[in-house]
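Hi support team,

I've been running sequence recovery on a batch of backbones for a student project. Most finish fine, but this one hangs at about 90% for roughly twenty minutes before it completes. I'm not sure whether the input is malformed or the queue is just slow. I've pasted the structure tokens below so you can try to reproduce it. Let me know if you need the job ID as well.

Thanks,
M.K.
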């Protein structure tokens, strides 16, 4: 245990996480919580940069919160809270906006991608999204930020903002380091193995959602796009579909690709695909069941969220106070 170090990560409640999110991120969150102080946030403030329907947002925040809880991070070392319950995020974001350059934000590839995708709603929140992300991270004095490859640029910017702020006011903010998992970060769509599995994919056939039931998981695996030939062999270039299923299987049962090839040598795709579905379900079903219990007791969930927001605030408040003092805001007496 290295309680000196703090981990922070955020997940957007845009859709339920999928098996790639679990294997690449959530599973790792649990491991990290055995070693470090971990702060995990359902980042609903981030999600409104794209229009959300209120009822759907409420449901997805509860579902994501329940799923994260159900993964079983070490409770003594983990704070799990809903971002909008802690107003300090918005306050620090405003402050850090003044330490972030227009040019820097213009260069963010996610901003460019999302602007292209939502051309009718290129709002200022979408533009300053990475500043809110920087605020999330420095608010908890995070040393380590587990993220996917796609968030590297945002983390680099968070570091630059913290360094710039410290350059003006002294060592106030902790400069974070990214932690990018080697494995599981690249689970591809079952329907199109040339694209990453995406929780917001309009085609559900490509996505093994953490909320899918056993039948759905097995059906989707059976229908997964595979390659010509009949051999279960790991070759991401020639056989991207089969290789992706092998990766899922290997991560679920804890075997490397060689061992998976051996296990299915001489068997066709059919038996292999069924085995992938069963392996995925056996990893996800206990989590799904636990999450369902939480979702079915909303009063208990609400109480937990409120307590956790209080614990998050207790960490964030002193950091925000140091920032306010450094800038020269008069304390409210
Ligand atoms: N932008 C991240 C994503 O889309 C989510 C996020 C928000 C985040 N704030 C964060 C991740 C802080 C790590 C740290 O995946």
């Amino acid at each position: 245990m290295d309680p000196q170090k703090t981990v922070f990560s955020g997940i957007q409640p845009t859709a339920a996480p999928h098996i790639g999110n679990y294997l690449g991120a959530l599973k790792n969150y649990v491991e990290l919580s055995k070693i470090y102080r971990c702060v995990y946030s359902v980042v609903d403030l981030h999600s409104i940069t794209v229009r959300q329907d209120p009822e759907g947002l409420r449901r997805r925040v509860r579902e994501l919160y329940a799923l994260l809880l159900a993964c079983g991070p070490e409770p003594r070392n983990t704070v799990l809270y809903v971002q909008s319950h802690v107003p300090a995020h918005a306050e620090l974001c405003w402050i850090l906006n003044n330490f972030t350059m227009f040019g820097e934000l213009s260069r963010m590839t996610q901003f460019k991608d999302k602007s292209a995708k939502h051309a009718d709603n290129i709002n200022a929140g979408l533009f300053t999204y990475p500043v809110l992300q920087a605020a999330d991270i420095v608010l908890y004095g995070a040393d380590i930020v587990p993220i996917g490859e796609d968030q590297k640029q945002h983390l680099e910017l968070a570091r630059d903002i913290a360094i710039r702020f410290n350059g003006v006011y002294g060592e106030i903010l902790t400069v974070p380091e990214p932690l990018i998992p080697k494995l599981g970060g690249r689970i591809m769509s079952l329907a199109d193995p040339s694209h990453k599995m995406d929780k917001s994919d309009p085609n559900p056939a490509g996505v093994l959602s953490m909320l899918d039931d056993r039948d759905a998981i097995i059906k989707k695996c059976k229908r997964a796009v595979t390659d010509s030939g009949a051999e279960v062999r790991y070759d991401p270039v020639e056989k991207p579909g089969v290789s992706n299923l092998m990766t899922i299987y290997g991560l679920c049962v804890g075997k490397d690709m060689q061992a998976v090839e051996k296990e299915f040598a001489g068997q066709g795709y059919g038996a292999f695909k069924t085995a992938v579905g069963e392996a995925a379900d056996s990893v996800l079903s206990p989590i799904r069941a636990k999450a369902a219990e939480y979702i079915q007791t909303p009063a208990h969930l609400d109480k937990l969220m409120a307590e956790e927001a209080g614990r998050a605030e207790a960490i964030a408040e002193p950091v925000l106070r140091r920032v306010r003092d450094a800038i020269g805001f008069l304390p409210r007496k």
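--
Follow-up from support: It reproduced on our side and the slowdown came from queue contention, not your input. The mean pLDDT is 96. No action needed from you.
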